Structures are given as structure tokens and as C-alpha cells.
């Protein structure tokens, strides 16, 4: 009996929020309580590569993450698979003699192999790149003819922040108004060429896995923090407008001020949660002080900092000169100490040190 395999490979970088998403108004559909804005990293660093395959010889859907088989039974994977399958179209690959009719996709099974080019355990956002890449690769495999914004609303159901990784450059996740989440999707604000002076450096403060998952943390915050309500209703809507303006006009002073303030407010909201959530540690706080002091002494900001659900610092320098100075400061104040919690090595463009 003749058999065949059709393969598609995609690569997706992770993204870092400069106006944070924290809190869901619907946990199943993953609908947020506020808009958010992020920057997508370049694909060289922190990216996921996913190959999806279909063959009549596969008897069930299966997935391997970094070479180890993982279960696809979770609701998040099932939602993404179901949504793409519902949009599958006819596929005809004359070269390989493959013909798949739209209705065949209901019976055919998929194999997925996904790799992160960074340590998954390093506490760096991996689900964002992972679900974006999975949804994009599946859409290509099944010839789903959706725009990236439409695909982002599917990736969102895997992991909220994943919807922003369907685009490069600066991206806004619009929270949406509808109950079914069809208008909760990502749009590109500017592409990656718009502000290419910026240099992003990630200081890995601790490679330990975070103690509170974002899902549990958000749930506790939504249920107990009054500060979150104030943030979502009063603060973020204004900040989103100001941030879009700062990005469009490449106004680094405003960009840095908004980015740092929003990171600090996100961590304040975590502290306002019952029980309180501590994502940053002493080293994170020392990095903040170091950047704040430097920015003040220069008179105009050189670097913005932002921290996600963990202690690692994401530092955005205004240009290569500032990035070089920043790296020198980091290596001086936080010399790499392997095997300790103070291991602040740097992922990024090391060539700028030369
Ligand atoms: O998409 P999740 O569940 O991994 O949540 C991400 C939350 C933050 O990284 C802290 C903020 C954000 O907007 O990415």
C-alpha cells in the first residue's frame, strides 16, 4: 500500500510585553482584562522551530517537545487543533502526488515536533513562541487561508501572549468586546525595520522555574486585587495610547518611562494579590536601581527594563552604544557566577562587546 507524508516547518520568535497582559476575564477562551503591547525578538534568539506532519499511516495526534513526547490531551492544544482543522482546505501537491480533500482532515492525524533554541527551564517565555509557531505551521499544513490576525485569535487560546508572536516588530493585542473572543486578536503596529536602533538584552538572573504559573497567578490577582481593577480600567487604556504614540515617533524617553512604569505596576499588582506573588528577586531589584541611577545621571534614558513572571531582566537599550555600556555595567556589577542564583549571563548580541 502506498503511503506519504506531508511536512511543514515554521519558526517563531518569542515576544516581550512593554505594556503587560495580566488577568483574564474568560479563562477558557483566554480573554484579557486589558490591551497589551509587545516587541517581537529577532528569530536568532529565543525562538521555537516546529515541524508538523500528516500521513495516512499516523493513527493518532502526537507531539514531541525538545525530543520528549508530551501529552496533547490538554484543552489548550485541543482548542488550537480543533480551530485549525475547522478551517482546513483542499491540499494538492502535484510534485509529491499528494491530494487531500477538505473533508479528509477530520480523519487524518498529525505529528508535531517542536524545539526551543533556548533552555526551556530558564524561566523565559516559551509558550508564546510555541503556540504561535504551532498554529502557524498547522495553518500552512492544512492550507487554512486565514490572515495572521485571525490565526492570532487561535494562538491566543493556547497561551494569551502567543497571539502577539504572529507578527514581527511592535504588536498590540486588542482585548476585544465580544463574548466569543472573535475580536480579541493581535495587530502589527509597526514592523521590525521601523525602530531597528533598539538593542534587547536579556539578563538571566535565575534559571530556576517560576514558582507561580501565570495561570494561577492571574486567577488569584483577578479574584483578590483591587489595584488590578484600577490598572485595567484607568491606567492601561491611557498608557496604550501613549505607548503607540511613542513607538510611532520613536520617542525613546517616553517609551522607556512607560515600559518601566508598566513593569513596576505589573509587579505591584502581583504584590497586591492574596497570597502575594513575588516574581522579582534581590538581583532583579539591583538591576532596576542600576538602570534608574544610570538613566538619571545621563539626563535622558539610555535603557528601559521590563520583567515578566520571573526574575530575569529584559533590557532595551536605545542604540548599540547604550547597549555596549549596559553590557559593561552588567558584567562589572553582576559578574557571571556559574551554578549560583546570581548567574547573570547575557543572551543577546555579544559582538557589541568587541
Ligand atoms: O501568556 P501567558 O499566560 O504566558 O502570560 C504572560 C504574562 C506576562 O508575560 C507576564 C505578560 C505579557 O503580557 O506577556
Automatic annotation (TrEMBL):
Keyword terms of this UniProt record: ATP-binding, Lipid biosynthesis, Lipid metabolism, Lyase, Nucleotide-binding, Peroxisome, Steroid biosynthesis, Steroid metabolism, Sterol biosynthesis, Sterol metabolism
KW Metal-binding (keyword) present: no
Gene Ontology cellular-component annotations: cytosol; peroxisome
GO molecular function, one term: diphosphomevalonate decarboxylase activity
Reaction(s) catalysed by this chain's protein: (R)-5-diphosphomevalonate + ATP = isopentenyl diphosphate + ADP + phosphate + CO2
Domain Mvd1 C-terminal: 200-354
Pfam families cross-referenced by the UniProt entry: MDD_C, MVD-like_N
EC number assigned by the record: 4.1.1.33
Example GO BP: sterol biosynthetic process
Keyword Glycoprotein listed: no
Places the protein is found: Peroxisome
Function: Performs the first committed step in the biosynthesis of isoprene-containing compounds such as sterols and terpenoids.
Family membership: Belongs to the diphosphomevalonate decarboxylase family.
Family annotation (PANTHER family): DIPHOSPHOMEVALONATE DECARBOXYLASE
Name the UniProt record assigns to this protein: Diphosphomevalonate decarboxylase
Source organism of the structure: Turnera subulata
Gene label: MVD2
